Target: Aldehyde oxidoreductase molybdenum-binding subunit PaoC
Amino acid sequence: MEFNSPAGSNLFDKPKVIGKSTPRIDGPLKASGTAPYAYERHDVAANPAYGYIVGSAIAKGRLTELDVGDAERAPGVLGVVTAANSQKLTKGDFNVVPLLGGPEITHYHQAIALVVAESFEQARAAAGLVRARYERGSGRFDLAAQAGSADPIGYDPQAKSPIDSLGDFDAAFASAPVKIDQHYHVPAESHAMMEPFATIAAWEGDRLTVWTSNQMIDWARKDLAKTLNMPAENVRVDSPYIGGGFGGKLFLRADVLLAALGARAAKRPVKVAMQRPLMINNSTHRPATIQHVRLAAQRDGKLVAIGHESLSGNQPGGSPEVATAQSRFLYGAPNRRTLMRLAAMDLPEGNAMRAPGEAPGHLALEVAMDELAEALGMDPVELRIINDTQVVPGTDKKFSDRNLVRCLREGAERFGWSKRNPRPAQVREGRWLIGMGVAAGFRDAPTQHSAARVRLREDGGISVETDMTDIGTGSYTIIAQTAAEVMGVPLERVSVDLGDSASPVSAGSGGQWGAASSTAGVYAACVNLRRAIGQKLGIDGDQARFEDGRVILGDRSFALRDAGPVSAEGEMTFGKFKDDYQVSTFAGHFSEVAVDAYTGEVSLRRMLAVCDAGRILNPLSARSQVIGAMVMSAGAALMEELAVDKRFGFFVNHDLAQYEVPVHADIPEQEVVFLDTLDPIVSPMKAKGVGELGICGPGAAIANAIYNATGIRVRDYPLTLDKYL
Ligand code: MOS
Model:
């Protein structure tokens, strides 16, 4: 089925289950600690052996010797896997550097061996006996120092120029009466998910099954097969529960490959959980950016020129952090230039982390807008409102639905924005300086092909199977809601099986496309099931109503269960509307802070997000998504930073003790408001994703609130207290 709006279904005109706050159906399993995570799949692999990963102690160079003899002879050891003794491996499509390194070493903590033993403790002890000698090469670890060698890189690899430009930016900027020209530094950040990379691998002949933790099942299956030079049909990936991903688990990582190689070597199922100290340098991170923003306006506040250039680094062959993304869409202006530069570096591979690009991009653009408002003597909410655009700047392409102005107005009203003193450093309560800040939020709303299988069971219930994942986002629940809605059964009669590559291929969880796309695929399968049921009953399933466990057409009425068992598959592809419309989500973010006048300590007092993201399928879990994202954005603004050792080339603070993320005491009462919008273009449910919108803007609102409180503008994240003294 192709969704090519504005056709589609009137099934969701008056939904009974969709759009209602619904507790997560996996909630009891999670809250009681019984949800089976990958490392705890005692049900699938009897008597597993344990793998322990050895990471490279240098960032760049060669392994000149890797002596595993003592390790192999250590008690309980079943085998030691290295690049030298493993089968030939092919690099997958989704990782830039080999997951098992040697003799070339391309980053610190790149895996160089897996020790497999009867127990975890034996594997760990033996890993200490692996002796590696290296020839250390020189590496590129300092982003600012690489600026000169960075290449321009565009959004569209086919485009003639990597520069996205419109009008005459230089002339317009030079002649404008009011302008801002600033640089912003955002450090590398870590996904820092609770559940580490973890896999149990088992071979049956030439067939491999991995129980793992991964956001994109089909990508993982194909990439694992490619890496091992085997047919993808012989690989099964199962990932029903995921303890956080944030983009770090979009791709195949070392735990999966090493567990597979270890299981083959030991002739036993092998389980590998990446040791916490390896998590950060072995895997991916959000690359640091140095962003140059130039804004120019007329005296009435109308933007005449927007310039945003972003420098980031990555392993050769890697991608840039697309920090200029929102700057192409958020505000109108006739003259514009956005440009990324990408430097080749030898730090671990950078890759997607929640709202890749836009999350750090807002930390620059939306602070520059605050600076411009001050230079204009204008209210920062009003400045954003008068520069709203309903078309993609420079084109006549419309947004499918865009209510940024409503987000800002409604947010200002609810937050009490009119009480803000526009002059900084004026409001004081004892030792605390008080300030308020605002930022707009933008995040794209992509959709992806998604399929599902649904079955009417003999008992009249509905089963749904799809390889869609739930990374803590609530996929189980919105998928159950969708099937309940379309099949006319209560939510409790729907069971949902996710994360298994034996099921039809879904959109997976990434880029905030999961919710809208995967439910559309389930909708398509349910439409086919209604047809199949109609056929069994001798009526037209497209014309019948499915309500309260009954199928009704004209004066005929059947019990749904009498038609079972019957199953159907369906898939949704998203059609040509993507060429005709820009489909995005929007938000207004507000924040109030108190800053200690003597110590510079920032205390967050209030946060509000007003979100425009189409129909909200489950307001309860959507709210959880947004407040979680706001916490991450507060972390980015105030404390998160992967500190680079520029001599030896690694992230120094490489565990959860040293990589600071917010704790409960850092986070105040948060409020989330969803505008009651329906996007007529995007999906049958008129829904868009929201999981990444919430991390786009709150950090900038916090930075702007700190400025309003103190009169000190810091453009070097995180905004730690030392920078305010
Ligand atoms: Mo998201 S960074 O695509 O998981």
Summary: Residues 215, 245-247, 250, 352-354, 356, 510-511 surround dioxothiomolybdenum(VI) ion (CB under 6 Å). The chain is about 25% helix and 25% strand. The chain has three domains: 2-35+447-577, 40-134+197-274, 146-189+286-443+583-724. The radius of gyration is 26 Å.
